[in-house]
Amino acid sequence: MTKSASATTTKVKKESTRDVLIRTAVAMIDEFGEPQLRLEVVLERSGASVSSLYHYFGNLDGLLRAANIARFNRYAFADIEYLRRRTEETKSKDDFRMLANQVLDTLYNEDRRLHRLHRLDTVHHASGSAEFSSEIGALHKSAIEQFAEALDVAKAKGFINKEVDTNGFAAWFLGNSFARGLLDITDNSDVSASWLATHRTACFHLLGL
Known about the structure:
Number of helices: 11
Strand content: under 5%
Oligomer: single chain
Number of strands: 0
C-alpha cells in the first residue's frame, strides 16, 4: 500500500516571528538606512504584532541591535563552512590552491561591496555600547576559531605550511576584510585590484601555496 502524499511530504520549518522581524528590519535598513526605520512600518511589513516585538527585543532599539548583528554576520559563517566542507572534499594541494583563489574572489568581488560597508557600519554602532560590542566581539572570535579549524583540516592534509599559526592567520585574514571595506569607501577600482593582488600573494606565501 502506497503512503499518502501527506505522509511522505517533507515538512518545511516555519520562520519564527523573531526571525521575520529581524529579516524585515535588515531589509529596511539596507533599503532606507537605520535613521528611517519606523516601528509601525516594520510591523506592517512583517505582519507581527507590537507585543511580539517587545517580547523578543524589549523595544525598537533591541530589534535594531539584532538586525545589525545579522547584517554583520551575513555570509561570514556560511563562507567559512563552505571552505571547510570543500577542503574536506579536496584531494590535492593544486585543487586547494584553486579553492583558495575562488574564496578570495568571492569575498572581495563587487557583489559583496555593500556587505563589507554594512560590517563597518555595524562596528561603528557597536562602539557606543559595551553590550553590543561584546556581542560583535563574540561573533568575530567565533569566526576566527572556525576559520582556523578549516585551515587545520588543510594543514592535516598537507595542503598548507605545517608551521603556520592558523589562529593568527585567521585573525589577520578576517581583520583584512575590514580593511577592504575602507577601500570600498575610496571607490578606486585600480587601488582595490592592487590590494587584492597583494593580499592574495601574502596569503599564498604565508600558507605555503
